Amino acid sequence: MEMISNKQRLRQELKRKRMALTPEQRIQESADICAAAASYMNQLRQQKKKSALTIFTYLAYRDEPDTMPLLHQCWQAGDTVLAPRIDAKQDALFHVYPITGVHDIEPGAYGIPEPRHHLSALPESQWDQIDLMLVPGLGYDLQGGRIGYGGGYYDRFMSRLQQYSSDLPVCGAFVFGTQITEKIPMESHDFRIDVLFMASEYVLIDK
Q: Can you tell me which residues bind substrate (predicted)?
């Protein structure tokens, strides 16, 4: 119970800090974060000897770091972009859909941007194609710790992903400066981030 209480307090504190950013700060910092991610992806292409990558990413909502500047670069580079859509019939579960531009996005559950309903989901057996996964969250530490919103969507996704692939994708996060904290309380089922994308730099986590 103490762990849950500590997480709830931390979520509230991190929400307040992120909401305190001005729209101008969020736009500029998001652009810088996207530039850092684009630089990393160029290195990942060389490392994997691929001209194009498959990226699975959240679609920003409200005051989250905006992923869209990076997605436009990915589409121009010929990368495959995947995004989640919540399954209304199964609690805390989403499916993965390829999107080829902003025309493939619409407001979904809770108003969160999601792939349009006419699109076909990527079969779970093909999830092993994902090279880079960008997950949302409220806060992070420099050891790869992450605290999300409490819904468990990405914890369940990672658990399902492990069933189809032993070679997991690089797990990254877009991070405003206010979202870094000294220590995130982690539980056994929580996964850790591999790389933090921050304003004009990225930090690889030494695990």
A: 59, 64
- 179 assigned binding-site residue: no
What is the per-residue pLDDT across 80-93, written as a single tens digit (0 to 9) for each?
999 999 887 776 68
Residue 149 annotated as lining a ligand binding site: yes
Q: Does 10 show up as a binding residue in the annotation?
A: yes
CATH number for position 130: 3.40.50.10420
Q: What is the pLDDT of residues 176-195, one digit of tens each?
A: 999 999 999 888 778 999 99
Per the annotation, does 116 bind a ligand?
Answer: no
Residue 82 assigned to a binding site: no
Question: What is the extent of the structural domain holding 105?
Answer: 2-204
- How far, CA to CA in Å, does 105 sit from each of 52, 82, 102, 183? 22, 11, 5, 35
What is the reported pTM? Answer: 0.92
* Per-residue burial over 103-137, b = 16 or more CB atoms within 10 Å of its CB, e = otherwise: ebbeebeeebbbbeeebebbeeeebeebbbbbbbb
**Does residue 160 have a known ligand-binding role?**
no
Nearest-CA neighbor of 40 among 83, 73, 89?
73
Q: How far is Cα 161 from Cα 28, in angstroms, rounded to an integer?
A: 33
Q: How many domains does the chain have?
A: 1
**Residue 202 annotated in ligand binding:** no
Closest listed residue to residue 75, CA positions, set 100, 53, 56, 97: 100
